[in-house]
Design a protein that fits this description.
Number of helices: 2
Order of helices and strands: EEEHEEEHEE
Structural class: alpha/beta
Number of strands: 8
Mean pLDDT: 97
Strand content: 35-45%
Low-confidence stretches: none
Oligomer: single chain
Helix content: 10-25%
Length: about 150
Amino acid sequence: MKFVIQRVTEANVSVDSQIIGEIQKGYMVLIGIAEEDTAETADKMVRKMIGLRIFEDENGKTNLSLADVNGSLLLISQFTLYANCKKGNRPSFIEAGSPEKADALYEYIIEKCRESVPNVQKGSFGAEMKVSLVNDGPFTIVLDSAQL
Protein backbone atom coordinates (compact mmCIF):
# COMPACT_ATOMS: atom_id res chain seq x y z
CA MET A 1 0.00 0.00 0.00
CA LYS A 2 1.24 3.46 -0.84
CA PHE A 3 0.06 6.84 0.42
CA VAL A 4 1.30 10.06 -1.16
CA ILE A 5 0.50 12.66 1.51
CA GLN A 6 0.52 16.33 0.60
CA ARG A 7 0.09 18.94 3.31
CA VAL A 8 -2.39 21.44 1.86
CA THR A 9 -4.06 24.72 2.67
CA GLU A 10 -6.93 23.68 0.38
CA ALA A 11 -7.82 20.86 -2.00
CA ASN A 12 -10.78 19.57 -3.95
CA VAL A 13 -11.74 16.79 -6.32
CA SER A 14 -14.32 17.00 -9.08
CA VAL A 15 -16.06 14.57 -11.42
CA ASP A 16 -17.79 15.88 -14.55
CA SER A 17 -17.02 19.47 -13.46
CA GLN A 18 -18.84 18.96 -10.12
CA ILE A 19 -16.84 19.21 -6.88
CA ILE A 20 -17.49 16.04 -4.87
CA GLY A 21 -14.94 16.56 -2.08
CA GLU A 22 -13.28 19.66 -0.68
CA ILE A 23 -11.11 20.51 2.32
CA GLN A 24 -9.16 23.39 3.73
CA LYS A 25 -6.07 22.78 5.92
CA GLY A 26 -5.07 19.13 6.07
CA TYR A 27 -3.81 16.33 3.86
CA MET A 28 -4.69 15.43 0.29
CA VAL A 29 -3.75 11.76 0.07
CA LEU A 30 -3.34 9.61 -3.04
CA ILE A 31 -3.88 5.96 -2.10
CA GLY A 32 -2.46 3.04 -4.07
CA ILE A 33 -3.48 -0.50 -3.16
CA ALA A 34 -1.66 -3.69 -4.16
CA GLU A 35 -3.23 -7.14 -4.46
CA GLU A 36 -1.44 -8.41 -1.34
CA ASP A 37 -2.68 -5.55 0.88
CA THR A 38 -5.05 -6.31 3.77
CA ALA A 39 -7.12 -4.49 6.38
CA GLU A 40 -4.14 -4.90 8.74
CA THR A 41 -1.93 -3.12 6.21
CA ALA A 42 -4.50 -0.34 5.97
CA ASP A 43 -4.72 -0.02 9.77
CA LYS A 44 -0.95 0.41 10.02
CA MET A 45 -0.86 2.98 7.23
CA VAL A 46 -3.79 5.01 8.64
CA ARG A 47 -2.23 5.05 12.14
CA LYS A 48 1.08 6.28 10.73
CA MET A 49 -0.56 8.95 8.54
CA ILE A 50 -2.83 10.27 11.29
CA GLY A 51 0.08 10.42 13.73
CA LEU A 52 2.48 12.28 11.45
CA ARG A 53 3.65 15.58 12.95
CA ILE A 54 4.22 17.70 9.87
CA PHE A 55 2.44 20.95 10.71
CA GLU A 56 4.44 23.82 12.13
CA ASP A 57 4.19 24.81 15.79
CA GLU A 58 4.60 28.35 17.16
CA ASN A 59 8.38 28.03 16.72
CA GLY A 60 8.17 27.00 13.07
CA LYS A 61 9.09 23.37 13.82
CA THR A 62 7.13 20.53 12.21
CA ASN A 63 5.79 19.25 15.50
CA LEU A 64 1.99 19.24 15.17
CA SER A 65 -0.29 16.45 13.96
CA LEU A 66 -3.48 16.61 11.92
CA ALA A 67 -5.54 16.55 15.14
CA ASP A 68 -3.45 19.37 16.67
CA VAL A 69 -4.41 21.71 13.82
CA ASN A 70 -7.99 20.44 13.40
CA GLY A 71 -7.03 19.31 9.90
CA SER A 72 -9.11 17.49 7.30
CA LEU A 73 -8.45 14.68 4.84
CA LEU A 74 -9.17 14.36 1.14
CA LEU A 75 -8.59 10.72 0.13
CA ILE A 76 -8.19 9.81 -3.55
CA SER A 77 -7.80 6.28 -4.92
CA GLN A 78 -4.81 6.20 -7.30
CA PHE A 79 -3.90 2.82 -8.83
CA THR A 80 -1.18 4.46 -10.94
CA LEU A 81 1.02 4.61 -7.83
CA TYR A 82 1.75 0.97 -8.74
CA ALA A 83 2.96 1.76 -12.26
CA ASN A 84 5.88 -0.40 -13.29
CA CYS A 85 8.02 1.43 -15.85
CA LYS A 86 10.95 -1.01 -16.00
CA LYS A 87 10.19 -2.35 -19.48
CA GLY A 88 9.49 -0.07 -22.42
CA ASN A 89 7.74 3.29 -22.23
CA ARG A 90 4.19 2.19 -21.48
CA PRO A 91 3.65 1.56 -17.75
CA SER A 92 2.28 -1.75 -16.55
CA PHE A 93 -0.20 -1.79 -13.68
CA ILE A 94 -0.19 -5.51 -12.89
CA GLU A 95 1.12 -4.80 -9.38
CA ALA A 96 -2.00 -2.78 -8.50
CA GLY A 97 -4.82 -4.50 -6.66
CA SER A 98 -7.86 -5.71 -8.55
CA PRO A 99 -10.62 -3.09 -8.74
CA GLU A 100 -12.86 -5.08 -6.37
CA LYS A 101 -10.16 -5.50 -3.74
CA ALA A 102 -8.88 -1.93 -4.10
CA ASP A 103 -12.36 -0.41 -3.84
CA ALA A 104 -13.15 -2.40 -0.70
CA LEU A 105 -9.87 -1.42 0.99
CA TYR A 106 -10.25 2.21 -0.12
CA GLU A 107 -13.68 2.36 1.56
CA TYR A 108 -12.23 0.63 4.63
CA ILE A 109 -9.49 3.29 4.84
CA ILE A 110 -12.07 6.07 4.60
CA GLU A 111 -14.09 4.57 7.46
CA LYS A 112 -10.96 4.07 9.62
CA CYS A 113 -9.98 7.70 9.07
CA ARG A 114 -13.48 8.88 9.99
CA GLU A 115 -13.05 7.23 13.40
CA SER A 116 -10.47 9.87 14.36
CA VAL A 117 -10.72 12.74 11.85
CA PRO A 118 -13.92 14.82 11.89
CA ASN A 119 -13.79 15.91 8.23
CA VAL A 120 -12.88 13.18 5.72
CA GLN A 121 -13.73 13.80 2.07
CA LYS A 122 -13.14 11.41 -0.80
CA GLY A 123 -12.95 11.00 -4.53
CA SER A 124 -14.99 8.59 -6.63
CA PHE A 125 -13.32 5.19 -7.07
CA GLY A 126 -12.64 4.45 -10.72
CA ALA A 127 -13.96 7.77 -12.00
CA GLU A 128 -12.12 10.28 -14.15
CA MET A 129 -11.31 12.92 -11.53
CA LYS A 130 -9.72 16.35 -11.49
CA VAL A 131 -7.80 17.14 -8.30
CA SER A 132 -6.80 20.69 -7.36
CA LEU A 133 -4.71 21.61 -4.37
CA VAL A 134 -2.44 24.17 -2.82
CA ASN A 135 0.52 22.24 -1.41
CA ASP A 136 1.62 23.94 1.80
CA GLY A 137 5.40 24.10 1.96
CA PRO A 138 5.48 22.30 -0.40
CA PHE A 139 5.39 19.31 1.91
CA THR A 140 4.91 15.82 0.45
CA ILE A 141 5.58 12.46 2.09
CA VAL A 142 5.37 9.00 0.55
CA LEU A 143 4.38 6.19 2.91
CA ASP A 144 4.97 2.68 1.59
CA SER A 145 3.75 -0.27 3.66
CA ALA A 146 6.79 -2.25 2.47
CA GLN A 147 8.98 0.23 4.38
CA LEU A 148 6.98 0.42 7.64
